[in-house]
Amino acid sequence: MSESEKTLLKKQNKMGVVPIPRLLFSMSLPAIISMLIQSMYNVVDSIFVAHVGEEALTAVSLAFPIQILIISCFVGMGVGINSSIARRLGEGKKEAAANVAEHGFIIAVILSVALAIIGVLVSERFISLFTDNPLIISQGRDYLVIVTLFCFGSIITQAAFATLQGSGEMIKPMIGQIMGAVCNIILNPIMVFGLLGFPALGVTGSAIATVTGQIIGMIYMLVVVFKGKRNLLKLNFKVFHYRTEIIKDIIVVGLPAAVMQGLGSVMITGYNLILATFGMSAVAVFGVYFKLQSFIFMPIFGLGQGAMPIFGYNFGAKNEERFKQTLKVAIGAALGIMSIGTILFWVFSAQILIPFNASPEMTAIGIHCLRSISIAFPIAGISIMISVSFQAIGKAYVSMIASFIRQMIVLLPSSYILAKIGGLDLVWYGFIISEIVCIAYEIFMYQRFKHQIFETWKPLPVLS
């Protein structure tokens, strides 16, 4: 490469010129670490709460669908912000990208208020759908009221994450995740068991520790976004101009992603209703599974966060070759990670359950659950990467439809039928069936859009 090419390379955005494997690795690794740290939020509370009692663990498990609803809102918002920023940067519109970020923070505040109101109103009624045990109901209600009232910590943090990630900055979001998670890990045993002079608050203490960690992470991220000297995007609400089309753009891309995540809440609720017929131990096991699988899926979501701005930038720049190469490399990495996850869940299924103070009944159910569902992991990894590519090009509704097919059309009905045919042993295989149907649909749609979009592009020169 000549000196003039090297100089040009330095001036150009790295998402358009750096070799894809190295670029994806550099951008995904901080996000993967961040998401692994984030998974600690999901697991730490259950580990400590499990030692309070199985009722406490069941209460947290039953509360998880509402947490998924919160996550779905900020994930959808983040995807919309990330994709909109990356596409504008790919088009060379830096000021427009900054304006997108400013609108993103407004959406975050509105979401926080709405979810807080919903949480206060529905928490007790929601837990009561599954059990009439007064202890489980009261613990689940208290947990949900706290995490929804203070959900602004996680939602505003996500707006900051998306702002930085959309412009290619991945390290600072990772630091923010680590700060919040470390705080949560330290505070959880203190609040739950009453250490260092604090009262023993049980499930309530776990909720307080969780939201405290999120708020600390939020404070750090706000300082980084609005005070950072080296940020590519400079946000300034003093000169902010509201534009309805930007809100629409974020929602068009983000809403399908939010619905995809929100379907997870509906799915878990439906699955819990199916499992409740087999007893509360089955419900507790499913809650534990969802916390554990986050250690496998969160790195994939981190990989997707790293790939998203690369997809979006090169789509905006009409660079078909780099777009396709990103998808190929991302699928290969996802397949490798998920295959490792399947092996771990098969070989160490009994050991994985030990930290959750599982009873003999929970252990027996849990081993079969972990081994059965994990067979679908590699297929799910490929599916997630294809889904991210649709979100990045503004076709997020395709991902939403795929998620709806997987969870509503196939998973719940097939699991219900399998439960009726073979009981608790067969119910878990619905996950495998649903992933196969979902990926078949996504591959079909990708081939369709490849002809509609890519073949109309005129190739742009790429530095080698």
Question: What are the SSEs and their pairings?
Answer:
Elements: H1 3-11, H2 20-50, H3 54-90, H4 94-128, H5 134-149, H6 152-166, H7 171-193, H8 203-227, H9 244-276, H10 280-316, H11 320-347, H12 349-353, H13 360-374, H14 377-392, H15 396-422, H16 424-427, H17 430-452
Helix pairs in contact: 2-3, 2-7, 2-8, 2-10, 3-4, 3-5, 3-6, 3-9, 3-10, 4-5, 4-6, 5-8, 6-8, 7-8, 9-15, 10-11, 10-13, 10-14, 11-13, 11-14, 14-15, 14-17, 15-17
Notes on the structure:
With 464 residues, the chain is mostly helical. The protein has one domain (13-456). It is built from 17 helices and no strands. It has helices spanning 3-11, 20-50, 54-90, 94-128, 134-149, 152-166, 171-193, 203-227, 244-276, 280-316, 320-347, 349-353, 360-374, 377-392, 396-422, 424-427, 430-452. α3 (54-90) packs antiparallel against α4 (94-128). The termini are close together. Mean pLDDT is 82; it is low at 1-11 and 458-464.
User: What coarse outline follows from CA principal-axis ratios?
Assistant: globular
The counted number of beta strands is 0
* Low-confidence parts: 1-11, 458-464
List SSEs in N-to-C order: HHHHHHHHHHHHHHHHH
Please report which band the strand proportion falls in: under 5%, 5-15%, 15-25%, 25-35%, 35-45% or over 45%. Answer: under 5%
Q: For this entry, what is the oligomeric state of its chains?
A: single chain
What's the N-to-C terminus distance?
8 Å
Main sheet characteristics: none
Tally of individual domains: 1
Radius of gyration: 22 Å
